[in-house]
Amino acid sequence: MKATKACFACVVAQAERNLYEWNGDEKAKFEVMKSVSRSLEKAQYGMKPIELSKITNDTVRIETGVVDLYKERKLILNQKAKEVLPEIKDYANSSENPLKAFAIAAILGNHLDFGVKDVAIDSEFVDLIKSKMLAIDDFDLLTKKLVKAHQLLYILDNTGEVVFDKSFIEAIKKRYDLKIKVAVRSEPIINDVTLKEAVEVGFVPEEIIESGSNMAGMTIEIASKEFLDFWRESDVIVAKGQGNFEGLDEVKDERLFFLLESKCPVISEILEVNLGDIVLKQSRN
């Protein structure tokens, strides 16, 4: 998808949120935001939203001198997700369709607001998983693909939700005999999953592919050779999160399934869903 005029406000706001993770004083943060504003002069019509956000995120990293501003926050995100995981597993395994329940949990994994470090997780998240319905529901099409599949590529998104992605993947492995690898960002970018965080939640290095992406999403144009080789050989491809949808939505491939929560009016309009709706959508012509 192409960035719209509305995307400018979003990427600037994201840059400003990044500065909550930095210990610079208010004057220094003000100067960083001036640089962020100037950096958008590099924007070109036709860029994807994740390419636009890369401009501002790169500027914040250069100006602050910090490569991974979310290093500490990512640990907290995964820990908080692990705390609520047993209750989610109990619900999913006792539900009418456990695999679908695990899929919905994975989609809703980044719904929780971990905006402060002392987050209290209560039953709200599990209640949401029990009540939230898919606005676009191609789950049956996904399972039909999985029945015949030998290989699955799962493109991860954020920390925190990766804990629920892992449970969904484990549920798939129990039901289908196929090879699965997860793709991670090749460099730290906001709170997205890199190799380090994937290993921290229990994936082994042999299961992990460095995608080649240093953006908050994935595109074929920047993919590593390892990613492209596994992509070509896979029978099913799962792209988690809004950023991966932004980068791959123009790929028309029936092997590709998008799992996301629509958090943006532009995305909602494209998908023809309401803001906050959850989606499991097959890519097809």
| CATH class membership of the largest domain | Alpha Beta
Mean pLDDT: 92
Number of domains: 2
**Structural class of the secondary elements?**
alpha/beta
So how many helices? 12
Residues in β-strands, percent:
5-15%
Large-scale geometry: globular
Proportion in helices: 40-55%
What's the SSE blueprint?
Elements: H1 6-18, H2 26-39, H3 49-64, H4 71-94, H5 98-107, H6 124-131, E1 134-137, H7 139-148, E2 151-155, H8 161-175, E3 179-184, H9 195-200, E4 208-210, H10 225-233, E5 236-240, H11 241-248, E6 256-261, H12 265-271, E7 278-282
Parallel strand pairs: 1-7, 2-3, 2-5, 3-4, 5-6
Antiparallel strand pairs: 6-7
Question: What does this entry look like structurally?
Answer:
This protein has 285 residues and is α/β, with parallel strands linked by helices. It folds into 2 domains: 6-64, no CATH class; 72-282, Uncharacterised protein PF01937, DUF89, domain 3 (Rossmann fold), CATH 3.40.50.10880. It is built from 12 helices and 7 strands. A 7-stranded mixed sheet has the order 1-7-6-5-2-3-4, sandwiched between helices. α8 (161-175) links the parallel β2 (151-155) and β3 (179-184). α4 runs antiparallel to α5 (98-107), α4 packs across α8 and α5 runs antiparallel to α8 (161-175). The longest helix has 24 residues, at 71-94. The chain is globular. The model is unreliable at 113-120 (pLDDT under 50).
